[in-house]
Amino acid sequence: MAKLTKAQREWRPGMPKKRRSTKVMFASTVLLLEAFVAFFATLVVFGFKRNELNPALILTVGIAVAVIMVVACAFLSKPWGVALGWLLQVVLILTGFVEPMMFVVGVLFAVAWWYGIRTGIRIDTENAQREREQAAWDAEHRDVAPGGTAAS
């Protein structure tokens, strides 16, 4: 028999499904796209500058940055997760010192990160407000049966 997760063990019929954070979803998307870019930028630098820089160092650092970006997605719901994301934005911009085009790519991703965080927070706030208003309306109209008649 498969082992149940904590959420599966605690679930009861009629329980509302916990809403996923839009901020986390947007931020994860940006970080995953950046991980792909970091990996492919590593291959570009390896191809063009392996005679100037240590090839093992290029691959190690580049792949490590890509992996850290993927792993950082798991921590976005933590209070320090967004700060880690900002640090990774700075790292991506700083890769421009090795491959100048990465200055442009890094800044564009930093803008996408900022927009995703800002918009995600706004949408999460609106969703929470909507849920509070729906709960208040449901509590207010609990005694009214469908069709507008009072339940007995």
List keywords for this structure.
152 residues, mainly alpha, elongated
In short:
This protein is mainly alpha-helical and 152 residues long. It is built from 5 helices and no strands.
* SSE ordering: HHHHH
N-C termini distance: 44 Å
Total number of helical segments?
5
Largest sheet: none
Task: Give the number of DSSP strands.
Answer: 0
Quaternary structure type: single chain
Low-confidence stretches: none
Which value, in Å, is the CA radius of gyration? 23 Å
Strand content: under 5%
Summed over residues and divided by their number, the pLDDT gives a mean of 90
Class per helix and strand makeup: mainly alpha
Give an overview in words.
It contains five helices and no strands. It has 152 residues and is mainly alpha-helical. The protein has one domain. The longest helix is centred in the last third of the chain and has 40 residues. It is elongated and about 75 Å long. The model has no long low-confidence stretch (mean pLDDT 90).
Q: What is the fold's blueprint, element by element?
A:
Layout: H1 6-10, H2 22-49, H3 55-72, H4 81-94, H5 101-140
